[in-house]
Amino acid sequence: MKNALVILAVAIMLPGSAAAVDSFGQVQNENAFRQVHTFCVDTHLLSRDNRKAEEKFIKKNNKPGKLLGKLAWKYTEDCSKADAIMTLKFDERKQSEMLSTVQGTIDPLGVAEATNTFTKVGISVAKKTGADPFYTLEGEEVRSGRVDAIDKSFRKLDHDLKLKANP
Q1: DSSP three-state, residue 88
Q2: Is the pTM of this model over 0.90?
Q3: Distance between CA 163 and CA 157 in Å, rounded?
Q4: Theoretical Cys-Cys bridge with 82: which of 36, 40, 50, 141, CB 3.0 to 4.6 Å?
Q5: Residue 60: Cβ-neighbour burial (10 angstroms; 0-12, 13-18, 19+)
Q6: Contact 164, 34 (CB under 8 A)
Q7: Is there a contact between 97 and 145 (Cβ–Cβ < 8 Å)?
Q8: Greatest pairwise CA separation for the chain in angstroms
Q9: How far is 61 from 38, CA to CA, in rounded Å?
């Protein structure tokens, strides 16, 4: 018993422990957040590329056992049947770096420029389009593309839904 208490005390003091119970997003209205059973994603303002990424994410993850199938909120395509409307905000940043194409040299002719694109996707959830959001989440930058950026944000939403279900 004494060892268990020591382990528990150490776990609480570890730096990562506090992050495990903190919310990733901000809930502006707890009551509205808890009343949601279904949601849709409003894609009207998304660019064609961002809409394609969202569609790819939904197609891949809207199955039993996949991310959307595990969420406490159930996804519906029809926003008129949803309790809440989610909007996605894509932010992209490009970063260039110089790479040596000839290993072990600093020859200026053996240098190539590579451009990396970093994407983050924020989530905002409201009762109706144009209404003030009751939940917002800032995305985290990923280098692996738009679909992965959406996935990362939805995983944070899933964490927050579980956290609010068991306060």
Answers
A1: strand
A2: no
A3: 10
A4: 40
A5: middle
A6: yes
A7: no
A8: 67
A9: 16
Closest listed residue to residue 39, CA positions, set 121, 139, 134:
134
Q: In a 3-state reduction of DSSP, which class is residue 18?
A: helix
Distance CA 66, CA 71 (A): 9
- β-bridge pairing 84-100 and 26-27: unpaired
CA 84 to CA 41: how far, in whole Å?
A: 9
Token pair for 67: 């991310």
92 contacts 115 by C-beta, under 8 angstroms: no
Q: Which residues pair with 122 in a beta bridge?
A: 89
Q: How far apart are CA 24 and CA 12, in angstroms?
A: 19
Polymer length in residues for the chain: 167
134 and 33 Cβ atoms separated by less than 8 Å: yes
Q: Domains in the chain and their CATH numbers?
A: 24-165 (3.30.160)
